[in-house]
Amino acid sequence: MLAPSQPCNPWRMSVAPMMDWTDRHCRYLHRLLSRRALLYTEMVTTGALLHGDVPRHLRFDPAEHPVALQLGGSEPHDLAHCARLAQRWGYDEVNLNCGCPSERVQRGAFGACLMNEPQLVADCVRAMRGAADVPVTVKHRIGIDRAEDYGFVRDFIGTVAEAGCEVFIVHARNAWLKGLSPKENREIPPLRYGVVAQLKRDFPQLTLAINGGFASDAAVHEQLALVDGVMVGREAYHNPWWLAVWDEQFFGAAPRALTREQVEEDMVAYMERESAAHGTHWYAIARHMLGLRNGLPGARRWRQVWSDHRLKHLPAREVMMLARTRPG
Predict the structure, then answer these.
(1) Which of 217, 251, 285 is the last residue of a domain?
(2) Residue 128, annotated ligand binder?
(3) Domain hosting residue 175, numbered range
(4) Same domain, 132 and 185
(5) Is 100 a catalytic residue?
(6) Rounded to whole angstroms, how far apart are CA atoms 60 and 91?
(7) Which of 82, 116, 143, 180 could link 174 by a cystine bridge, Cβ 3.0 to 4.6 Å?
(8) 116 is in an annotated binding site
């Protein structure tokens, strides 16, 4: 475990950007569980910010800090404009997505296919850094398609680092751009953690965090001995209570007397505030906490109550009481 007096970097533990999952309601839940973990938004495209509803995409609760905005795009000028927006809205970091393999992203010529154009990525980073004072980071894969050429990812990082990027979050799988869905791209290309460890040895001056398949304290500690940080994706979403030990396990913080019941009550209070301020229905928020009681007796019935669309007409606090009193 990290000694309490030992300094740590903001990227030591983070929750990955996940489309349709890590919206501001999900991030609020995660912040209740961990005060230190860095939280990322879903990927927001430059087009959505240039031509869409900016407040809808960028609004977040101040409690979410530290929070990073992940951008999808490939035009330096557009990304610079969006980086300025991120700083104006108070984000702590701007991250460029160079890892998403979806066909929609490929049609927009950004995401993972940007790894084939490291100089363009460098130009994007340079433009974003010139437009905002917050850190500009890059999230990427270790390769494209089935080629396992270490020199490819090494040279990508080297080129982008020359533009001033000092932090790289590396998903330790290749992105197969043809033939696999985004879900399959998170599961089928083999994890190669050793590549990321080698990158850290080759670039000791950079901050390198690893992403891909982590689901236990032991697995995280193993990587923290080799690289600067670990980013957790699906396990953090499906088993959010794991985050409750992160501050103690990985940041050396004092243990907290936190209970699932208190987190649930805090989320209900948040639902009530969101309803009053923005007209958000509690049902849109509750979906993110359905894994909170995973592994406990009665968890299945608890999830059923919170996900029962027939109860949508009830206030959130009444639903909470039903979830706690139904047999199971």
Answers:
(1) 251
(2) no
(3) 13-251
(4) yes
(5) yes
(6) 9
(7) 143
(8) no
**Are residues 104 and 196 located together in one domain of the fold?**
yes
Can you tell me the distance from the alpha carbon of 23 to that of 265, in angstroms, rounded to the nearest whole number?
A: 20
The catalytically annotated residue of 100, 113, 124, 165 is: 100
Domain boundary among 228, 251, 274: 251
Q: How far apart are CA 53 and CA 105, in angstroms?
A: 20
**Sequential pLDDT tens for the chain (328 residues):** 444 434 568 999 999 999 999 999 999 999 999 999 999 999 999 999 999 999 999 999 999 999 999 999 999 999 999 999 999 999 999 999 999 887 766 666 778 899 999 999 999 999 999 999 999 999 999 999 988 999 999 999 999 999 999 999 999 999 998 878 888 888 889 999 999 999 999 999 999 999 999 999 999 999 999 999 999 999 999 999 999 999 999 999 999 999 999 999 999 999 999 999 999 999 999 999 999 999 999 999 999 999 999 999 999 999 999 999 855 4
Structure tokens at 61: 């609760």
Whether residue 223 contacts residue 242, with contact meaning beta carbons closer than 8 Å, is answered with no
70 is in an annotated binding site: yes
User: Is position 139 annotated in a ligand binding site?
Assistant: yes
Residue 233, annotated ligand binder?
Answer: yes
Q: Which pLDDT value is given to residue 101?
A: 83
Closest Cα partner for 209 from 105, 99, 133? 99
- CB neighbour class for 204 (10 Å; exposed up to 12, middle 13-18, buried from 19): exposed
Q: How many domains does one find in the chain?
A: 2
Return the SS3 of 221. helix
196 and 81 within one domain: yes
Under DSSP, the state recorded for 163 is: T
Instruction: Check whether residue 279 and residue 168 sit in a common domain.
Output: no
Strand pairing class (13-15; 38-45)? parallel
Any domain includes 239: yes
Q: Does residue 52 have a known ligand-binding role?
A: no
Decide if 8 is inside a domain: no
Tell me whether residue 102 is in a domain.
yes
Token pair belonging to 294? 């995973």
Query: Is residue 211 marked as binding?
Result: yes
| Statement to judge: residues 273 and 237 lie in one domain | no
